[in-house]
Amino acid sequence: MISDIRMPVMDGLELAEHLKMISPETPLIFCTAYTETNYLLKAIEMGVSAFVRKPVDTDELLEAISKAALPLIQKHAIDGLSDELMASMKIYMGSTPAQKAIAEQAVRVAKTSFNILLQGETGTGKSRLATIIHSLSPRRDAPFITVQTGAMPLNLAESELFGHIKGSFTGADRNRIGLLEAADGGTIFLDDIESCPKELQAKLLYFVENKRFMQLGSKVEKKIDVRIISASNRNLKDESLSGNFREDLYYRLADTTIKLPPLRETRDAIIPLALKFLRETCDELGTSLPFLDENACATLSSLPWSGNIRQLKSVIRRAVLNAGSIITAEDIAIHTDFEDIQAASSQSDFKDMKINSQYIGTDSTNCVSITDSAQTFLLVPPPFPCSLDKLERWAFEQALRYCDGKRMKAASMLGMNYYTFRRRLEKHGITEGGGVEVNHE
């Protein structure tokens, strides 16, 4: 806001006081010939951003506007970036309550320099989450290097991590930087940290505390700047209490701990994840999207998934390669371990099966659907005979799901005018996010 000071009815100070109450973030610039020092000091105390003397010099006014607006513009940019990061993370992680909680925690910590410990069973997505956190962090343009701490032979582990100088051991015919130094400025991901040899843990502790190390055979310390993300298949605190892992190293690595639950404990995520992997695989292969039939969804939802997300993705990818336009329970079963099929609960009784916060069942036409309190999605087309309206509604729902609820993108994909598409959505009672308004009468 740009204002004079001496005005009828209300002067500049009164204006500043009212503006502060109704819009405290709005910058105020006084444009005036009034020069009384006490008055101007009081205006400064009230947070007036700048004074521009009359007669007004345009360049001076523009400079004052730029300086006053810059903090507000930066705040909007930061808020917008946070929203964008959160949206990106939810696309990667999924939208169930458990996945959203992990995504929110990951976005918060990604912007910091905290060391992060990821804990969860094999296949729960720790490596993928570590990569995503790095890509959302200020270090995204620097290296991201993975170290398999449990896979390195003890006699080579120190050289691999810290590097060595020429002649430090037999065969060291040149200087070599280690993986830690290669990650300078970026992120080092210590996978399977619980398997790190105890002999190496002491040197790793010194590095984590000080970001300093010495190459093998050298007497000169090097200092680097890296962010450390670790991952463990076991509860690392329990491992430290039992003496299998250094307790002091555990606390240095776990500035923040993110726990990834096994897939069997988040069954509401199975079908959405399966559909996500289905879409990714088809995009990669350049093929049309097949449908998961009723029994296939039942099988996917009831399996114990001992290999977690990694196993689910593998099964879906293999099923897409070998199935036709519809993926059946048999297509899922032949790519799943026999023990998992035996352990699965009822595969045939898909109707009325409740899975955590979502309800998966069949409608009156025996067409498989996913329903929660706000929306219903049909996974396969309604069977004939059915009306054209019903087929059109199904097509719109699938297009919105495929385009993550983006209506303009869905309309373009269907070759429709955007405003015509919007009117059709309203006609069918389809909400903005791609859901369907449910009549509870």
TrEMBL record:
Location (main, coarse): cytoplasm
One of the GO biological process terms: phosphorelay signal transduction system
Annotated Pfam families: AAA_lid_14, HTH_8, Response_reg, Sigma54_activat
Keyword Nucleotide-binding set for record: yes
4-aspartylphosphate PTM positions: D4
Example of a GO cellular component annotation carried by this entry: cytoplasm
GO molecular function: ATP binding; sequence-specific DNA binding
Gene3D superfamilies named in the record: 1.10.8.60, 3.40.50.2300, Homeodomain-like, P-loop containing nucleotide triphosphate hydrolases
Signal sequence residues: none
Domain Sigma-54 factor interaction: 92-321
Keywords from the UniProt entry: Activator, ATP-binding, Cytoplasm, DNA-binding, Nitrogen fixation, Nucleotide-binding, Phosphoprotein, Repressor, Transcription, Transcription regulation, Two-component regulatory system
Name assigned to this protein: DNA-binding transcriptional regulator NtrC
Stored CDD domains: AAA
PROSITE patterns noted in UniProt: RESPONSE_REGULATORY, SIGMA54_INTERACT_1, SIGMA54_INTERACT_4
Every Response regulatory domain range: 1-69
Localization per record: Cytoplasm
